[in-house]
Amino acid sequence: MTHQTAGIHHITSFVRHPQDNVDFYAGILGLRLVKKTINFDAPDVYHLYFGNEIGGPGTVMTFFPSEGARIGKVGGGQVGYTTFAVPTGALPFWEARLTAFGVAFERTQRFGETYLQFTDRDGLQLELVEREEGTQSEWSFGGISVEQAIKGFGGAILYSVKPAQTQSTLVDVLGLEKVGEENGLVRYRAAGDIGNVIDVNAEPMPWGAGGAGTVHHIAWRAASYEDHVKWRDHVIEQGFHSTDIIDRQYFNAIYFREQGGILFEIATDAPGFQRDEPFETLGGKLMLPSWYEPQRDLIEQNLFPIEVRVLEADGQ
C-alpha cells in the first residue's frame, strides 16, 4: 500500500502561562486563536489552537499551557524547530517586528533559503522562512497585514536519536521524498504545498526531556475519514503500534512513536474548527465536548482568563 501525506497537519507543544502564549502567537506572530478548549485528559488545562483565518490543516500550532510546568530540554525524540512560512519579501518586515517586540533572532541559511530563528517566551524553537508556495493567509492582526502574515507551516526540523530509522519512516510510511543533504541535515518533501519541507539531523542526537518549551507531537495529514482508516492499517503493516482512532472533535487522530523517539500523529482534515463556532467568532468562547458540559462552571473557574489583545508595540 502506497501512502503520501500532504504534509504537517498541526504541531502541539507545552508552554507555561496561557496569556503569555496568546500574546506571543496572536499578539506578536499574528496567528488567529481559532479554538479555545481544554486538554480532554486534564480539563484544568487549556488546549489552545492558533492558525490562519480558519485554522486550516497545515497552519495550526496548538498548546497545552500550564503555569506550574517544568521547563523541558529540546533534544532527540522531538521536533527541534517549528518552521513558519511567510510570503516572499516579508522577512525584512519580520526582522523589524521581532526587534520591536524584543524578540532576539539569528539569520541563518540552509538549502539556499534564509531563516530567522528565535524562541518564544518558554524557549520553544521557531523559525520563519519565505516561500512562494502555499495560500496566503486572510487574517490580519495588530501591525501585520495579509501581505506579511504567516501562511502556515513551512515544515520542521526533526531531532532524532536514530536518524536513519526516522528517515526511513518519513519515506516508507509517510511517503516523503528525499531532496537533499547539507551541513548535517537531510531534507525531505511531502506532497502538499504547505507544511511540506522536513529536515532531519543526520547524526543521532541526545535525548531531550518533555516540558514547557518543547514539542509534544507532530501530526501529519490524512485526506479523509476513509483515508485515515487506511493510514492506520498502513502504520501497523509497517511494524508500528498505532492507537485506535480517537475523535478529537475537530479531527480524528491516531498516534504512533517512530524509532527515533518522535511521537507522530496522523489527523484528518475534516471536520475543522467551524464545526461548533461560526467563522466570525472562532476562538471567542471556551468550547467543551458534550461530556464536559455539565462541569462547565467548575472548569471555567479553574482556568486563567485569557484575551486576544493588540500589544503595546503595535501602538495600543
Automatic annotation (TrEMBL):
Q: Which is one Pfam family of this protein?
A: Glyoxalase
Protein's name according to its UniProt entry: Ring-cleaving dioxygenase
Q: Does the keyword Thylakoid apply?
A: no
Record flagged with keyword Oxidoreductase: yes
Per its UniProt record, what InterPro entries does this chain match?
A: Extradiol_RC_dioxygenase, Glyas_Bleomycin-R_OHBP_Dase, Glyas_Fos-R_dOase_dom, VOC_core
CDD domains this protein is in? PcpA_C_like
Lineage: superkingdom: Bacteria
Give GO MF terms, alphabetically: dioxygenase activity
List each copy of the VOC domain by range.
7-131, 152-269
Q: What UniProt keywords are attached to this protein's entry?
A: Dioxygenase, Oxidoreductase
The record, for Gene3D superfamilies, names: 2,3-Dihydroxybiphenyl 1,2-Dioxygenase, domain 1
